[in-house]
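Lab notebook page, bench 4
Experiment: in silico fold of construct C2
Operator: M.H.
Input chain length: 236 residues
Purpose: comparison with the prior construct
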Amino acid sequence: MKPLLELEAVDTYYGQIHILQSVDLVVGEGELVCLLGGNASGKSTTLKTILGIVAPRRGAVRFAGEEITRRPTAHRIARGLAIVPENRRVFAPMTVLENLEMGAYLRPKADLKEEFERVYDLFPLLYERRRQLAGTLSGGEQQMLAMGRALMSKPKLLLMDEPSMGLAPILVERSFEIIQQVHESGVAMLVVEQNANVSLSIADRGYVLSTGRVVLEGKAADLLEDEDLRKAYLGR
């Protein structure tokens, strides 16, 4: 499978604190990959490094055939990266429609008809609620909106930051059904999660971070059966 995103021997620091330590990670075109780890494992720093919010001191980041290690965040977004942030972070005082339009702010409005149709096909509820203020939606509905907003940029790779965080248990399963649905529509995805069991159940491959290092990687089905992973992350 052709690589879409590659991190090669990435070392990222905050001041003198060494956070990511020689991290290698690949997401292929059309893949759904999950990045697992507990608190302070380096998951958020990995996302910030991919997005260009922090720059690695060593190593390389490549996306869609281009080395983007020193490129600004705006360039990366224009090249086809998009993120659904932790806790969704919709624009609460704006309508659903206005939130979706914000997701496409880098694109000409004349080109958006197809993207609106795609998002509304995936999430019919967003069409029904398009005039409703985003802040009045439920947590699950806001998750749909955050994903729809990201898809409006027509991304090559969608980054998901802790999609289960803040959701009631009954909504977590629905959230991952939506993630799988978006992936099956043709979007490559990197899902950063603590919920190993659910995320591995829909992923193609997975990586496990611990104190800034990749300690396990492989096919999702194999990781689900890995004894070390079960003990550390699945509690069984």
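Observations: Residues 86 and 161 are 5 Å apart (CA to CA). DSSP finds ten helices and ten strands in the chain.
Next step: discuss at group meeting.
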